[in-house]
Amino acid sequence: MKTLSNANDRDELLRRLDTIGPASQRRWGKMTVAEMVCHLSDALRVAMGEKHAGPIGNWASRSVVKWGALWVPTPWPHGVPTVPACNARMDGTKPAEIESDLNRLREDFARFTRQPRGYELQAHAIFGEMNEKEWMRWGYLHMDHHLRQFGA
User: Fold this and answer.
1) What is the mean pLDDT of the chain?
2) At what angle do helices 98-113 and 7-17 cross, to 10 degrees?
């Protein structure tokens, strides 16, 4: 299973990220490509404790749903709403210039995956407490989901 703990899997995502640009069109959902880039950065910054997203999960999302989302080898469903802190139309980062936003995402990605880690992993707003293995699996799946959303 792919994970951000694996250098080849990280490189794959970064290569796919390089194909994203202002002309990228979504295949589903409401986010623009610029909002998606900011969303990915915000989600990583929440995990690293640099941005706050209050918990909205429940027992099911912290157990059965989390396990299924991370370990069942099927694509994530479309249209699942994100937390306000990671939604550019709510409390999330507003897009600026796509290249600067992409550079910020690359920097956040590098910090999130760097070892040794320079931050303490926080609880996921929906899935609750997660260990490093779970966070690295989530990181791969989350980015993969949104890159596929824009055809990358």
Assistant:
1) 96
2) 170
Cβ neighbours for 142, distance < 8 A, ≥ 6 positions apart: 40, 43
Quick check: 57 pLDDT over 90? no
- Amino acid identity of residue 83, one-letter, is V
Amino acid at 92: G
Where do the domains of the chain lie? 7-149
Out of 15-19, 76-80, 138-142, least confident range: 76-80
Spatial CB neighbours of 147, under 8 Å, sequence gap ≥ 6: 13, 16, 17, 20
CA atoms within 13 A on the CB side of 4: 26
Q: For helices 7-17 and 132-149, what crossing angle results, to 10°?
A: 30
- Residue 137 has, within 13 A of its CA and on its CB side, a CA count of 16
